[in-house]
């Protein structure tokens, strides 16, 4: 399968919001399926109460892949 890069971004934080940014690129979701571990974490910065965004984020994930389970949502 040919790999396609869909985005190149500024240095990004991958494992923690507190880490130093590093070089990052993104591949289409289906190309990642063979490399994914059992879980994926999605960090989202919001303006306003974070809990109020959870339903919209869950819907956006369902729009991308209806079979993708969202196991839990946390806010800080």
How many H/I helical runs?
Answer: 2
Q: Helix and strand succession? A: EEHH
Strand line-up across the major sheet = 1-2
Largest sheet, described in full?
A: 2 strands, antiparallel
Radius of gyration: 14 Å
Average pLDDT, all residues = 78
Helix content: 10-25%
Please provide the count of β strands: 2
Helical/strand content category: alpha+beta
* Beginning-to-end CA distance, first to last residue: 39 Å
Judging from the principal axes of the Cα atoms, what is the shape? globular
* Strand portion: 5-15%
Low-confidence stretches: none
What brief labels describe this structure?
single chain; 76 residues; alpha+beta; two-stranded antiparallel sheet; 2 helices; 14% strand
């Amino acid at each position: 399968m040919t790999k396609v890069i869909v985005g190149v971004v500024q240095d990004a934080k991958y494992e923690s919001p507190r880490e130093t940014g590093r070089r990052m690129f993104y591949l289409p979701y289906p190309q990642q399926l063979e490399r994914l571990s059992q879980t994926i974490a999605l960090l989202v910065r919001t303006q306003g109460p974070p809990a109020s965004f959870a339903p919209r984020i869950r819907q956006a994930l369902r729009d991308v892949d209806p079979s993708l389970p969202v196991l839990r949502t946390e806010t800080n």
